[in-house]
Amino acid sequence: MKRILISIVCALFLMSCTQSEDVETEEQLVEKEAEPVEKLTASQDDIRFVAGWLNEMAILFVNQKDAKDRLLSFDLKTGDIHTLFTATATISEVQVHPTASQLLVKTADDSTEAVIHILDHAGTPLNEVSVESSELEIQWNEFDASQLLITAFSDDWSYEIMRYDANDDTLVAVELPDPFPRWLGAEELVYMEDVVVIKQALSTGEETILANNANQFHTSSDQVLIESFEGEQIRYTVIDANGKEKHSWFSEDDSFVMDHTVFSDDTTLMMTVTNQTEMRPTSFLVKIQDGKEVKRQELQGGGSLDCKGEKCLIGYSLDTWMDIETGETVKWLEIKPQE
What is the residue range of 160's domain? Predict the structure, then answer.
């Protein structure tokens, strides 16, 4: 009799465990279900360009209405559209600061002058600065949102580099042989001279060579990604602000070179690579973690890249977002054919 009771109790216990496991599995499946995403349908005239992510559920785009350019946000969850900024001048560039809740909007009426507007995420003006050129390269300091590095080009492509400090609204000239320097940390710059990557301290002017035989580089926060040639191979190296190597790896295919790069955190980056030797270039979105490739997804037609969390906007018009983990793509923007 005792044996029968023990068997019944064990059977009931196993059934309860199985039911519990089934519930947990169902809950896990529910958690993994994709969130519903609203789609924006517009005509070609309604969208001038897509600027990128405002946050993990909203995307910025620019259109023109009543002879004015407008910066708007589109909420993927609700479908709501909000106007953040309006200008009679042409909006030609929008940046979202990676850590501060601020936006940068560049406007210009003609080629002689541009205005850089700094706003909060609600569209409230914070600062603005005028520069005597509309052809600008603008780098926003990731550590300090009050600091901009601006390269202004003339008609003959001569240039002037300036540091803008929003705290006291000042522009100070910076002398460098490369018109495309990048911030490294709060007070250092990185630039290229021929194939040499050099770091310069703004306060002292002291310079340090970070790499030789480089093809290009990308900075994020306090680290640098360098693409260099070693014989016939392409090597990628991530170094810290002191030049110490953190990670290094070789390209799987030396015909592919880096197009766009976004650091997700200190150990993870997303990059697009393209085979420039083919008649129809092939592009891939690659996820690198701790110096190792963990994901690779082919991109139809290449294009730009803007990532937020595990989602990246891809394509030449950024009309599609991709889930990095699953490879799922969703076209959030549909352009109606012209009648």
Answer: 103-175
